[in-house]
Design goal:
Number of helices: 10
Helix content: 25-40%
CATH topology of the largest domain: Deoxyribonuclease I, Chain A
Number of domains: 2
Shape: elongated
Structural class: alpha+beta
Strand content: 15-25%
Distance between the termini: 69 Å
Order of helices and strands: HHHHEHEHHEEEEEHEHEHEEE
CATH superfamily of the largest domain: Endonuclease/exonuclease/phosphatase
Radius of gyration: 21 Å
Largest sheet: 6 strands, mixed
Length: about 325
Amino acid sequence: MRRALVVLAWLAVLAAAVGVAVHYLDTTVTVLVVVASFAPFLMAAGVVGLLVLALTRQRAGTVVAALVVAASVWTQLPLYLGESARPGEVPEVSVLQANILFGQADPAVLVEQVRAREVDVLTVNELTDDAVPRLGAAGLDAELPYRYLRPMEWGGGGTGIWSRHPLSEETEHLGFVLNMVSARVHEPGQRPYRVVAAHPIPPWPRPQSTIWNREMGEVRNILQGLRGQGEPVIVGADFNATYDHAQFRALVGDGYRDAAEQSGAGVLATYPADRWWPPVLAIDHILVSGAVAGDVESVELPGSDHRGVAATVSLTSSDGYAESD
């Protein structure tokens, strides 16, 4: 029995080592991309292995397991080390990101979330033609009267932006399987900011990780171009990627921050949300540039297979410091 426990412990440590490896691995091999999605669970196995090896007095194994666990903690620690979401008396924007599963999410619940949170900007993925009037009938257009929408008749390719304040420079960014749009928001009394709604194609279940990798790179290029205009940028997206994908960290690694990581909210699992078990993958995100996110949390969206993500975003100047009045 003792020998079997030691073997199982070593397997657990090996699983954790694989989790650390795929966290850093920039790959388009679909199976490795999928494994990276579950990296935190693999890393957690290392803790079990460490405890068993320590209890069975496997000194060398305990040292190895401790090193693997330390490396695992190092990869996840940034998600829990937040910074102040209030760098000064600065304008605040309430943001909600929602994937509505081919337009099937309950429109009344979504609108109630918008109303209760006093949302200023809503980004929507999987927006269908027939979902637009149903959302309007539920009161969304009354709450957020300005919009830029690129719905699709069916499927998950439609994307849209609703705003409490006027929009300009509405742009559909071409070259994506699923629509990506952006707009400039003009709120009275403060300088404009940019809003982006994106939805890179999932790398699975079909082997299309090469396309996903290309689209993640294209999204990064577009976001860098928008950031270069010197205004705050807010992104709401189903990236089909977690913090443990190197492609996602590359996207947020140059002037952008993931709201959950920046605020210290940790892993906000959003998918799948339509099972008897809770969501396990954090693939829906809000990103910010020239801003600081706080009060970040997941939001239930009945009828969808995703949870939404809500955040309060404090706009800052282009150099990262609070704007003065």
